[in-house]
Amino acid sequence: MKHAPFCCDLRVTWCHHRNPVLCFLLSFQALRLSNSATRETSTGQIRAPSFSFKVTMFLHFLWVGPLQAVVVTALLWMEVGISCLAGMAVLILLLLLQSCIGKLFSLLWSKTAAYTDVRIRTMSEVITGIRTVKMYTWEKSIMDLIARLRRKEVSKILRSSYLRGLNLASFFALSKIMVFVTFITSEVLGNVITASQVFVVVTLFEALRLTGTLHFPMAVEKVSEAVVSIQRVKNFLLLEETSQHNPQLPSDGEAIVHMHDFTAFWDKASETPTLQGLSFTIRPGELLAVVGPVGAGKSSLLSAVLGELPPSQGEVTVRGRIAYVPQQPWLFPGTVRSNILFGKKYEKDRYEKVLKACALEEDLQPLEDGDLTVVRGRGTPLSAGQKARISLARALYQDADIYLLDDPLSAVDAGVSRHLFEQCIRQALREKITILVTHQLQYLKDASQILILKDGKIMKKGTFAEFPKPGVDFEDIPLKEKEAEPPPVPDSPTPSQASESSVESQENPRPLLEDAAPQDQDAENIRVTLSLESRSEGKVGFKTYKNYFISGDNWFIIIFLILVNIAAQVNKDIYFGFLMFLYFSSNCGYRPFWHHKVSVDVLHPC
């Protein structure tokens, strides 16, 4: 037992070395999930690191416990004979009971995990749409909904706690019961119990108590939980992934996007294809404008070029580096400059040209720290238009070959929209391949090609000069639609956030933020505008403990449990005192005070 701390530390070290590997696998898989697979999982569904540590701590007691029980049984047989089997029978019954408890643990853990998934998914949706909740005063209804979900989850957790308490209770009671049953059986068989036998039997059962009644039950419980968690990890790792699409660099120096008779399904079980029979070719210097009503498949077309929507028929050829601007801007916590550079080396002239093309110069001037202002979660304190232009500037700074722009003009006003189209799309990207999804029909006359989609099919394709012909009416296409295309299930989900940032060729991989810091300014000069978190210092007051107890059960139950705990601690001393009393009473002539007229116990020396 003296080596137990070392073994425990060794297991902890082993676990901490395994956790990063498991976290890496889960993170890597999350980045490769297809859009249909992302609908099958949710945030918080996988909590692998929390169980691997506990399982590693107790796993080996699954075989150490039975082995120790066999050794202790052999020693007890040598000491008290067949009577020891009665005590070991109690242990076997406990093991059978714990086996049933383990199955119940697995069942309850599965149900608890399912309820937790629903609650976390609901909370995520509420937080995302908190403005809508406040606008329609749905606070009470949402609180009731979350409370109901939490009550269902807590009910399963409560049952698991009951089983856990039953396991822990066996730790304190089992060794006494085993000793009691062993001695009663020995007395019934007519054997003489000596003091040496009592101490040997108690010592052996105490040695078995820690492993048999604490570590082994904990191992059964944690392994049961781990089996469920591992199955969830396995299911997550086996989810559908996006096709391994690596854009080829043009061997002849010319980038190209070519699609021929392309048909694809977001949901393979659906009979209606998301995209059907698409064919077009775009070369450098050309601008393809994609228009159509909501749900026509415009975002799905960009997903196909990105390689996230695999073809079921036809082919798509992409040669060149891709930069993608999503419909919903994505910003990471950091400065505005780091969000634009996105790991690229800072070049002042190039950087200023990008700011000018994306109409960000005037927006950054009112900020106290300019482009060194720290952006917090969800792009705070920037407006929706500013976030959209920063996302566009990030793609422009990457200097890619192919630009996929998913309606970047819808989040800005008419003046800024005109500036972005003229200065960014027509000027800065004039030598690039550009696919622009837009609802701004006034810009179609400047497009090299126009693609009108409806229900995933090409309604019309050609130049602006070809469209006034009979049979094509621009009035059929809405001038202004909603800011984002809702992803019909399973028609056309938006491209996953794995591609929301600029996607660059893997030919020249580099650390993401290696050169992101400006060379002409030390990092110490960057003033962080994040507000410091409030913190309290000092001792925990009595009020905190009072609230903690009040949050539990009533005071009577708390006091009762404290008294039971004290009684359980002194019970062992009372029990051994009673055994010593019986021993001296039968061997040393000890007579208690009620056998005498005086009120003092008399102990005759042996």
From TrEMBL:
Low complexity: bias regions: 494-506
GO cellular component, one term: membrane
Signal peptide stretch: none
Region listing for Disordered, in residue ranges: 482-518
GO MF terms held by the record: ABC-type transporter activity; ATP binding; ATP hydrolysis activity
Transmembrane domains' residue ranges: 55-74, 80-101, 161-183, 189-208, 548-568
Residues annotated as domain ABC transporter: 257-480
Pfam families: ABC_membrane, ABC_tran
Keywords: ATP-binding, Membrane, Nucleotide-binding, Transmembrane, Transmembrane helix, Transport
Keyword Membrane attributed: yes
Compartments in which it is found: Membrane
InterPro entries cross-referenced by the UniProt entry: AAA+_ATPase, ABC1_TM_dom, ABC1_TM_sf, ABC_transporter-like_ATP-bd, ABC_transporter-like_CS, ABC_transporter_C-like, P-loop_NTPase
Residues in ABC transmembrane type-1 domain copies: 55-205
Gene3D superfamilies the UniProt entry points to: ABC transporter type 1, transmembrane domain, P-loop containing nucleotide triphosphate hydrolases
UniProt-recorded name of the protein: Multidrug resistance-associated protein 4
Organism taxonomic ancestry: Eukaryota, Metazoa, Chordata, Craniata, Vertebrata
